[in-house]
Design brief:
globular, single chain, 9 helices
Length: about 120
C-alpha cells in the first residue's frame, strides 16, 4: 500500500508527464493498493492481466528486473527517486507508460536491494 502523501509528492515530481499523473490518480483511487491499480491500468492499455492472480504485478516487475537493477538506477530507487528510471523505461519501452510507476513503486515497497539480489554477483 502506498501512502497518499507519497502519491501527492510524486504528482508534484511527475507534473509534466501525463501518463505518470494518470497512474498516480489510479493508485490514489485504489486507496494506495498497487496491485489493484496495476490491474486497472493494464486493462486500460489493452492487456488482459490475470485478475485472480495476486502476484501479477510481481511478475511484471520481474520482467523489468534487469533494467531496474542497473547500478545507476538502483541507487536512485533506494533513495526513493523514480524519475530517472521512469524516463529510461519510456526510452527502452519495457512496459506501457501507465504501468511504469506501479512497477517502480512496487519494487521500492518490496525493497530494491532484496528485489535485485538475484542479479547480484555471488
Amino acid at each position: 500500500m502506498i501512502d497518499l502523501q507519497i502519491i501527492e509528492e510524486l504528482q508534484f515530481q511527475f507534473a509534466d508527464i501525463p501518463e505518470a499523473i494518470a497512474s498516480l490518480e489510479t493508485i490514489a483511487d485504489c486507496e494506495g493498493n498497487l496491485e489493484d491499480a496495476a490491474i486497472t491500468l493494464a486493462i486500460r492499455v489493452g492487456q488482459q492481466p490475470d485478475i485472480n492472480n495476486s502476484e501479477w504485478l510481481d511478475g511484471l516487475a520481474k520482467k523489468c528486473r534487469v533494467a531496474i537493477c542497473q547500478a545507476e538506477f538502483r541507487n536512485e530507487m533506494v533513495d526513493g527517486s523514480f524519475i530517472g528510471l521512469f524516463q529510461h523505461f519510456v526510452q527502452i519501452k519495457i512496459c506501457p507508460k501507465l504501468l511504469i510507476l506501479p512497477v517502480l513503486l512496487y519494487v521500492h515497497e518490496c525493497g530494491v536491494n532484496r528485489f535485485c539480489q538475484p542479479l547480484d554477483p555471488v
